[in-house]
Amino acid sequence: MEYENMLDRLYMVLPDRTASKERFEMPVLEASVQGKKTIVRNFSQALKAVGRDEKQFYKYVTKETATAATMDEGKLVLNGKFFSDNINRLWQNYLNEYVLCHECKKPDTQIIERNDVKVLKCTACGAMSAIRKL
Ligand SMILES: [Zn+2]
Hints:
This protein is an alpha+beta fold. The protein folds into two domains: about 25-100, 2-Layer Sandwich (Defensin A-like); about 105-134, no CATH class. The protein has five helices and seven strands. It has helices at about 1-15, 15-20, 45-50, 55-65, 85-100; strands at about 30-35, 35-40, 70, 75-80, 110-115, 115-120, 130. Strands 1-2-4-3 form a four-stranded antiparallel sheet, covered by helices on one side. Helix 4 crosses helix 5. The longest helix has 15 residues, at about 85-100. Zinc ion binds near residues 101, 104, 106, 124 and 125. Zinc ion binds near residues 101, 103, 124, 125 and 127.
């Protein structure tokens, strides 16, 4: 009986697995320096996961880093050396502005254009936030 009690308690302290699986997990960019370049290996994959156009983040990252880059077979190649942490900080900023709802922080959003202004529209809470054009 004691063993069963322990199991009960174990289940209580374990996080709810199904709940955390349903929550959207933001992909992390896998960036590494090769020579004088920085390769983001899972570029296409990450953009697909957040439902955004590759070109959008491409523009964002080249603007923010003031660096030229090329897209090559699902990878992003930046002409410069960048730490993975820095690339991921940019990625996080991008997600905060262009993917996550500015109000409720959920990723259930779409980008629409209203009177020539780009707007991030949240399908979860209905919030609309203006975003910078890229
Ligand atoms: Zn929202």
